[in-house]
Amino acid sequence: MSGAAVDAVLTAIVRNGVLAVTEEMKTNLTRTAYNMIIYEALDFTVGLFTPEGDTVSIGIGLPMFTRGMAETVRAKIRHFGPDGIRPGDILVTNDAYLTGSHLNHFTFTMPVFHEGVLAGFTCCMAHWQDVGGALGGVTTDIYAEGIQIPIVKYQSAGEVNQMLVDIIRMNVRVPERAMGDLRAQVTAVTSGERRFRELLDRYGRAETLAAIRAIMDQSEAQARARAREIPDGTYEAEAFMDDDGVDTGQTIPIRVKVIVSGDEVTVDLSGVSPQVRGFFNSGETTGMACAEVAFKCLTSPSDYPINQGSFRPLKVVLPAGTVVSAVRPAAMRWWMTVPMTVIDTIFRALAPAMPDRIIAGHHADLLACMIHGISPKDGRFYIGSFGPLGGGWGAKLTEDGVSATVCLNDGDTHNAPVEQVESKYPVLIEKLALRPDSGGPGRFRGGLGIERTVQARAPLSFSTQTERANCPPWGLQGGTDGAGNQVTLRIRGEEIAGLPNAKVLTRRLARGDAFTVRSGGGGGFGPALERDPERVALDLREGYISREAMERHYGVVLTEAGAVDTDATAALRRDMAGAAPA
């Protein structure tokens, strides 16, 4: 471990203190934001960073922002230099290739000075509902996606850069909401700055920063200890995305390699597809975050605060120009989709090495839907979104997968409450329910997806860019795949299914028309014929599976009274096992 010994009690106090700072930042942001995607969906992350830009504590939010936030803070430090950042400054950018995501993510950073010395930074990255650019269709370069703000000062020594504010205001469609979210992010970073200074005042700058270094060293030691438990070796896996929305049906390969050597792990993403023409690209920091999120889940999932120390044993191989390390002018609007499958595939690669810690494949998409139109209430233009919609997670060695849960790299993000959506937009939620038979059969069953049907109560435009319709969540160790994601339309009473993928790039819906989004289920773990028949019968009673699935996949027979017929079940399972291919 680096650095001199520090007081253990003070280290524990600082550990909880920095967590409290970021949790208060998170609370202040959600209470003051104007758009549901922040205050309901929690599409943001706040953080506290060292003077060099290393992560001290992250308030999740969105785990995928971890590397993008840290690299954005470091880029701002490099941009202004050691003498160019002063007390009262607030730095901002939405550079997609720096944050790794799309232009909707504005990142505000504030330095923390203590007795004239730079002691750290607070930062907030949050999703703005609209940043200009094209409303529908597939964008094929960054210039069509909205306003781009380089690294600049929103506030200099306490004085707001009003010209910047005016430029942003003119480039968004609903400026009062954008300005509200801007102020909310400023509230988050300024309140974090104040609380961290109070911590430094109370315990001393040198002592507090030493405690932070000790916390990082402890996180590193824990991550290395867990990494040593993984058998040394090279592990590989692959999956694919349906397409990029431009070249329909042309799959996007996802190939990963994980090399374990002692207490270090290397994630090699050089086999991931080159960047694509459509808007499913993300920047280098997101590719790195894929490796970090997977590594954190496998080595130190309960170690808090999330900090740089946890990632010191991790190395990432990521050449420029892949779909998760795209370079300008690649389109980035739907940046978040491919990384979900990259993380899923990293887990898949390591399944043989650590079957007790790996889940089968999951639905791996936000299933987000965008609507816009003119509100019949007040005649004003609106932009709204549905999502993220939860789905099924993969089963594990010892338990069923969870149902109706947001994809794994979206952390604490929430779905859009029915009452909120119906009160704000001209829609009616006809159905929101679990999707029977969507979980992959197995000794332990995959979690179930969700089915949501939304009816237009006034004419509106609808778009969704859902993925993994054709690459279903895979099972492990003999488990069966779960159902893939699906989108259908109901136009003038007629159901339109059988789309080549789950993307509806722009569709005008009349009053009474509807769209249905069905999230996939998780893959199963282990052979389905080894599942406890009583659990199968319970799944049937709960509506999780159909009777046809009970018999076809699990070989379970019930009596007329609904109890498990033990003899008939044993006989059917013997017949099914004998008929199965070797």
Topology, pairings included?
Elements (H helix, E strand, L loop, with lengths): L7 H25 L3 H4 L4 E6 L5 E6 L4 H16 L9 E4 L2 H4 L5 E10 L2 E11 L24 E5 L2 E2 L1 H9 L4 H29 L1 H23 L5 E9 L10 E10 L2 E5 L15 H16 L14 E4 L19 H14 L18 E6 L6 E6 L31 H7 L2 E8 L15 E7 L3 E7 L19 E6 L2 E3 L5 E8 L4 E5 L14 H10 L4 H8 L11 H14 L3
Parallel strand pairs: 10-11
Antiparallel strand pairs: 1-2, 1-5, 3-4, 3-6, 4-5, 6-7, 8-9, 9-10, 12-13, 12-16, 14-15, 15-20, 16-19, 17-18, 17-20
Helix pairs in contact: 1-6, 1-7, 3-8, 5-6, 6-7, 8-9
Tell me the strand percentage band: 15-25%
Q: Which of globular, elongated, flat, extended, rod-shaped describes the shape?
A: globular
State the helical fraction: 25-40%
Mean pLDDT: 95
Classify the secondary structure makeup into a structural class: alpha+beta
The number of helical segments is 13
Strand arrangement within the widest β-sheet reads 2-1-5-4-3-6-7
The stretches of 5 or more residues where confidence is low (pLDDT under 50) are none
Please report the total strand number as a whole number.
20
